[in-house]
Amino acid sequence: MKKLEDYVRCIPDFPEEGIMFRDVTSVLQDADGLHLAIDTMQELVSDLDYDVVAGPESRGFIFGMPIAYNRHKPFVLIRKKGKLPCETASMEYDLEYGKAVIEIHKDAIVPGQRVLIVDDLIATGGTTQAMVRLVESLGGVVVGIVVLMELEGLKGRQKVAGYRLDSAIKYEGK
Q1: Are the CB atoms for 55 and 117 separated by under 8 Å?
Q2: Using alpha carbons only, what angle is made at residue 166 by residues 84 and 96, rounded to the nearest 5 degrees?
Q3: How does pLDDT run across 26-68, given as a tens digit for each residue?
Q4: Rounded CA gap, 87 and 3, in Å?
Q5: How far apart are alpha carbons 49 and 94 in whole angstroms?
Q6: Which residues does residue 100 pair with via DSSP β-bridges, in sequence order?
Q7: Band of residue 16 on the pLDDT scale cut at 50, 70, 90
Q8: Which domains does the chain have, with CATH numbers?
Q9: Mean pLDDT across the stretch 16-20?
Q10: Is 96 a catalytic residue?
């Protein structure tokens, strides 16, 4: 039986020399890989008590939706600025070469709700940290974060220190 890591395609020197790109599309394109990814992530947080699942576009949607569906929980969209139609709360965060903004509907999280954040990857941790702050700005309580892959060498976990972070796959490098 294949391990989850076996479904991840590694592309050297992309997008620049010295980077080993971990391609999530190879997991998604294989029915067994996708099934294993969802099951593994879901099992990692099976002991958590949460009310709602939240995830960022687009890959957080892909992995978060099945977990929300399987656990009979609502799913909250976290999107890039300008993509949500109702009143939003927003959070700016740093990228490697600039800044970005994510948004959530102001009525998506009720104060006191326990939130599980789901994404495909944590690298430097900027997006994950921004999602935590965004949920908390609405009064939500982040009880856990689960990702398919963690690039440990980029130390993103440090940006969400104090929060539970589970990773299905951990890579030492970048």
Answers
A1: yes
A2: 55
A3: 999 999 999 999 999 999 999 999 999 999 999 999 999 999 9
A4: 43
A5: 31
A6: 93
A7: confident
A8: 49-171 (3.40.50.2020)
A9: 85
A10: yes
Determine which one of 17, 87, 96, 172 is catalytic.
96
Predicted structure pTM score: 0.95
Active-site hit among 22, 59, 79, 157: 59
Q: In angstroms, rounded to a whole number, what is the distance separating the alpha carbons of residues 97 and 131?
A: 19
Burial class (CB in 10 A: 0-12, 13-18, 19+), 163: middle
Burial class (CB within 10 angstroms; exposed 0-12, middle 13-18, buried 19+) of 99: exposed
Give how far Cα 44 sits from Cα of 28, 34, 153, Å: 19, 16, 22
| Cis amide prior to 58 (ω within 30 degrees) | yes
Determine contact, residues 123/156, Cβ cutoff 8 Å. yes
Torsion on CA atoms 42, 47, 49, 51, rounded to nearest 10? 10
**What distance in Å separates the CA atoms of residue 83 and residue 86, rounded to the nearest whole number?**
9
Does residue 79 carry a catalytic annotation?
no
Token pair 């099934």 is found at 35
Nearest C-alpha neighbor of 117 from the set 156, 172, 173? 156
